């Protein structure tokens, strides 16, 4: 088939080298066209993310891809040689499925890579560097990746702080669409928490940050998808009764949420449950809050325990996923090989049709001459049988002369001959007389 994959990722190359071979979206179309011209091919997809750059192509000369990758990025071939990995045919298909499934990611099972691979294919299609053959190969990889993620738990458990918060919220509340989340500090960690909450359809967001400008930036990003309200930092205690979920990560040296304020908030809420997550070190939330009824308080250590347990489950699921990937890769190869037989089958059927037409024409001529119909039919059957049996008979003879006896066995099995021979009735076989012992030999 000539399918080939070449690339570098977080396990084979430093950040410095990965940056040198990364492709920005702006120059990707140019890169696709130049690679096809340089390597004399027309089937090419480039996948470029922060953790990997990979080239997928159908080519009889894969070495040219490495030359081009170095040339395009102003590097020497030797700069890349010890950092690249290369796969061909079935191993390349397996690698592509592993990548799309998240099994080859820095964060095991992460879902973003699936969309990144799809975008890479779409960009290549727009650039005109994808044939139907390469397209079908990628579509099979997408099918396989979806199957792996739906039938194994490789991507189910949270293994990031941000998503772990959402997982806890889903355990406490039956529907996040009916909840209000209070985000205390709009830094990087809480920004991730907020995005995950929005993806899971949280009902409302309250953003409380010392810098109103920073809170406004985050609110502007999200308000198209969810109602957002900015809370002045000095009004944090007043906002607590409205919050079902509180995620705090201020980086302050002192606590910003007191147990007394939470106690008052619970009374105003009529003791509806609250989930409070303290992502800060030192901690933002008074530890006395953990002794209050109707409050679920988690800190970084609690979340880390959750993440480590989830990661262990993902690793176990990854073992099942790897087996499935191998099976799905082999399945695609079998399909490809099966399709390669199609023109031969068409040609063979055409040959049979010609034999049939020739013998049928002769039979019609004989009937037109007035010959006996029964004799004509018998001649037609005998002639057609003889011609159809000629090629298989020659095949069996050649197989019998082969040094490997399994060739004959396979040929007979394929033609259905083996079963006929083994089931031949005893009375139909020639009986061979067995020699009897001579009485003369028994005499002393």
- Low-confidence runs: 426-444
Task: Please tell me what the overall shape is.
Answer: elongated
Report the sheet-strand fraction: 5-15%
Q: What is the CA-atom radius of gyration, in angstroms?
A: 36 Å
Summarize the amount of helix as a percent range: 55-70%
The major pleated sheet works out as:
6 strands, parallel
Mean pLDDT: 88
SSE series: EHHEEHHEHHHHEHEHEHEHEEHHHHH
Quickly give the structural class: alpha/beta
Q: Strands across the major sheet, in which order? A: 7-6-5-8-9-10
Essential attributes:
4-stranded antiparallel beta sheet, 12% strand, 6-stranded parallel beta sheet, disordered C terminus
Outline:
The chain has 444 residues and is of the alpha/beta class. The chain is built from 17 helices and ten strands. A hairpin with a 3-residue loop joins β2 and β3.
Structure report:
The protein has 444 residues and is of the alpha/beta class. It contains 17 helices and ten strands. It has helices spanning 15-21, 25-39, 63-72, 77-81, 90-101, 112-127, 132-151, 161-172, 188-199, 212-222, 236-239, 259-268, 300-340, 342-368, 373-400, 405-415, 417-422, and strands spanning 3-9, 44-48, 52-58, 85-88, 180-184, 204-209, 228-232, 245-248, 274-278, 295-299. Strands 7-6-5-8-9-10 form a six-stranded parallel β-sheet. α12 links the parallel β8 and β9 (274-278). α5 packs antiparallel against α13 (300-340), α7 crosses α13 (300-340) and α8 (161-172) crosses α9 (188-199). It is elongated and about 115 Å long. The N and C termini lie far apart (77 Å). Mean pLDDT is 88; it is low at 426-444.
């Amino acid at each position: 088939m000539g399918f080939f994959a070449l690339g570098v990722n977080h396990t084979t190359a430093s950040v410095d080298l990965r940056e040198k071979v990364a492709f920005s979206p702006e120059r990707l179309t140019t890169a696709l066209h130049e690679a096809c011209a340089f390597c004399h091919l027309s089937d090419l997809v480039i996948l470029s993310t922060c953790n990997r750059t990979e080239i997928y192509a159908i080519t009889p000369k894969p070495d040219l891809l490495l030359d081009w990758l170095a040339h395009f990025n102003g590097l020497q071939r030797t700069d890349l040689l010890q950092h690249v990995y290369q796969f061909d045919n079935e191993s390349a298909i397996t690698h592509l499925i592993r990548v799309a499934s998240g099994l080859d990611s820095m964060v095991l099972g992460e879902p973003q890579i699936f969309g990144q691979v799809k975008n890479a294919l779409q960009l290549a299609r727009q650039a005109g560097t994808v044939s139907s053959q390469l397209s079908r190969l990628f579509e099979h990889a997408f099918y396989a990746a979806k199957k792996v993620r739906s039938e194994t738990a490789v991507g189910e458990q949270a293994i990031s702080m941000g998503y772990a918060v959402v997982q806890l919220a889903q355990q406490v509340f039956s529907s996040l669409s009916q909840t209000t989340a209070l985000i205390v500090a709009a830094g990087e960690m809480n920004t991730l928490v907020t995005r995950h909450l929005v993806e899971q359809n949280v009902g409302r967001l309250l953003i409380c940050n010392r810098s109103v400008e920073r809170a406004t930036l985050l609110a502007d990003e999200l308000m198209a998808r969810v109602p957002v309200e900015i809370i002045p930092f000095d009004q944090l205690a007043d906002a607590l009764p409205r919050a079902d979920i509180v995620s705090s990560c201020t980086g302050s040296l002192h606590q910003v949420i007191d147990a007394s304020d939470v106690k008052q908030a619970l009374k105003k809420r009529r003791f509806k449950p609250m989930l409070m997550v303290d992502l800060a070190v030192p901690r933002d939330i008074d530890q006395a809050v953990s002794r209050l009824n109707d409050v679920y308080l988690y800190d970084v250590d609690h979340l880390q325990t959750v993440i480590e347990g989830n990661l262990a489950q993902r690793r176990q699921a990854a073992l099942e996923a790897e087996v499935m990937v191998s099976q799905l890769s082999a399945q695609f190869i079998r399909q490809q090989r099966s399709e390669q037989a199609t023109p031969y089958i068409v040609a063979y059927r055409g040959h049979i049709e010609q034999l049939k037409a020739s013998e049928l024409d002769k039979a019609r001529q004989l009937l037109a001459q007035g010959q006996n119909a029964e004799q004509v039919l018998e001649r037609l059957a005998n002639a057609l049988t003889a011609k159809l049996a000629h090629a298989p008979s020659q095949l069996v003879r050649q197989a019998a002369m082969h040094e490997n006896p399994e060739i004959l066995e396979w040929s007979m099995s394929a033609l259905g001959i083996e079963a006929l021979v083994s089931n031949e009735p005893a009375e139909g076989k020639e009986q061979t007389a067995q020699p009897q012992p001579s009485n003369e030999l028994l005499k002393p």
